[in-house]
Amino acid sequence: MKIPAVGADGMRHTILVDSTGEQLIWNFRSAFNVAALNCTAPTHLEIADHYRAFLKTHAKGLKQANAGVDTAFRKLHGAKFLRERETYMTQVYNFFAFPPTQPKFCDAALVLARESKLIAPKDLPAFAQRSFGTFGSVYEQFYRDYEAYQAKLAAWDAKYGARVTSTQ
Questions:
Q1: To the nearest whole percent, how much of the chain has pLDDT over 90?
Q2: 57 SS3 class
Q3: Which residues pair with 6 in a beta bridge?
Q4: What is the pTM of this model?
């Protein structure tokens, strides 16, 4: 598995690295959507209800964010913007649906889902920014843990020899 590299700026270069403004709000909504659909353990079931309420409460701000994302993609890609945007959004959804992170992602989503009912429409950008960081920390921890595993495996291989990769 390839782990996203850390850039000179100290940030991992994932599909989300440049998310700002309306795109960040829309990507947060995407993460919340993934949680509503994928976090189905009994302890996480309320996420879907909070997500529905979030969509209703923040319909205007989300519509504006969606339009802003369309405008940005149209400006960058011209007539082919829709295909580019849909490809990008598929990558965003896949990022948040990464199976090894789901238990911790769902735990984080539950906390944020509960908080979302307290957020006034005018506070959506700040909430999305903060929440995005919370979701991001789940993936950052996974990457660090996986890098530590890779280092331990390399040390093991150096000491005991390379592992067998096929059966005889």
A1: 74
A2: helix
A3: 12
A4: 0.87
DSSP secondary-structure letter at 118? Answer: T
**What is the Cα–Cα distance from 142 to 62, expressed in whole angstroms?**
29
> Domains of the chain: which residue ranges?
21-160
The string over 146-168, giving b where at least 16 C-beta atoms fall within 10 Å of a residue's C-beta and e elsewhere, is eeeeeeeeeeeeeeeeeeeeeee
- For the record, the structure tokens of 15 come out as 């599909």
Q: What are phi and psi of 41, to 5 degrees?
A: -65, 150
- Cα separation, 3 vs 13, whole angstroms: 9
Residue with tokens 């960040």: 24
Cβ-based neighbours of 158, under 8 Å, separated by 6 or more: none
Among left, alpha and beta (phi > 0; psi -120 to 50; other), residue 141 is alpha
**Tokens linked to 125:** 């950008």
- Facing residues of 12 across strands? 6
pLDDT at site 148: 93
Instruction: Read off the amino acid at residue 168.
Output: Q
